[in-house]
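Running this now, will post back.
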Amino acid sequence: MNMNNKDNSYDDLALRPLSAFFKRLTDKLGTPLTLGLFFVSALMVFFVSVAVQIQVKRYEKMITEAHQNHLKTVAQIAAHEVSTEELDRFRTIEDTKNTKYTDLKYRLVQFAEKYKVKYVYYFREYDKERFQYIVDNDFDPKTEVGPDKILKIEGIARLALAGNVTATELGAHDPSWEDLLAGFAPVYDTSGAFYCVAGVDVGDRVLFDLRRNSLTMMTLQIVALAVSVIFGVLAMFVYRRKARETEEAHLKLQYFNNNMRQAFSTYLSDDVVEEVISDPARLKLGGVNRHMTALFSDIKNFTGIAEVLTPEHLVDLLNYYLSTMSDILLEHKGTIDKYQGDSIISFFGAPLELADHAIRACTAAIIMKRMERDVNRYILDNGISPSPLLTRIGINTGNMVVGNMGTQKKMNYTIISNAVNIASRLEGVNKMYGTWILAPDSTVQETKNRLLTRRLDRVKLVGINEAVRIYEILETKTDAADTQFELTYLFHKAMDLFEIRNWKDAETAFNNVLKTYPNDYPSRLYAGRCSYYKEHPPKADWDGVFSLTEK
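Update: finished.
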């Protein structure tokens, strides 16, 4: 007998009890293990459902807010589209038989097509409890509204007739509205009194489908905890279907991209808008170091102007001014960083690199000052402002960090660096020199002698250690007047004497400038300095740098 076979048989006998033990253990644990797997599967389905629910909610909120912002913007535009004199002609159904009423409806049809809305309409308060429709862009006899349509004031209509700019919430709608969201804005007559309400509607089924799908997903979450793995599998199929619907809904964002470009472009350059739309992955934190030019603008004594205006008139004034000046910046390929009250912060050279960013920024500043004359003529003639708006501008060129900064939830495409701070400081330095546009030599050198400028001091700005030579930018050389060339020539002759400390002759030279140009503040400033330095000369080791103590 082979002893190896005998040993193997003994090994088999020894292992049989252990094998039986595992078999019995498996039999006992089979059902609990299976149920446990079912439960784990159900939990996985539950958590997946929660994740999808959160994403659906976020997406629902995002596109709803996009709709509402678009509707509010278009409603405000519609409030200026038709005059109150036109609307006041139509108070009864008989008034609508006039051809002017039909002409007005055709205008509203064109307005709706231009701003991608379904309906645009106007309604006024009829009495304390009811309101009256005036006109809309609908020619369908079954759905069009006119002065014969009088309804009870309630809900969103009450807010609109109170003079609020508002929009309907998702779910706060009447099913008969055919899944419409609405935006409203007040219409004022020429005296500034509230007259009626401008309303616009947009329809998009995806918003209401998302709400319905969201409620369905909540039901799945509850049931998933109490069902077997079979239901878990079914829930996974539902999840896949929801995922496909979400993907399809994302495609609908193209609709919003097309409609919102116009609104975004009022404060962002077209290049930034296109980057965001074409590649949303760019919306992440981070920046790059780039040689650029920053421009800061601010209105002189705007606080005093704001104090005498009502909030509504103040907003109208600011919107008109900021829109006009922003258009100039954007036309020269500038990017609007942000608005701070009446101030505009902008930069040139990002997101797309511009070799001529310095001359673009300076030219934009010059044109802003030119356009200021037309702006002031309009606001003064129409009583929009009690006094003219005078803009101070600071410009600087240098290395800056540009990119998306902030948090993952809220970020801003902006610039930071010491060079940016210099531009901000120079805007305020205008107050001390009585100038309107200031830039340092770093910017002027890059304009390649295409601008008419005059040399001022070397200064140390607040919070900036290095001294910079500042220049007043007067005009482009091709457009400058002879008097501006003469002023610059005479001033520089006087400045040369000032910088070699010939106080007496410099004072005479600056006073000679004032004889021809009595309102030239820099000449008056330097003449006063010369008079002082004749009696109190600076120390021999003075390097000619003025340390400024105010921003």
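The longest strand covers residues 391-406. More later if anyone needs it.
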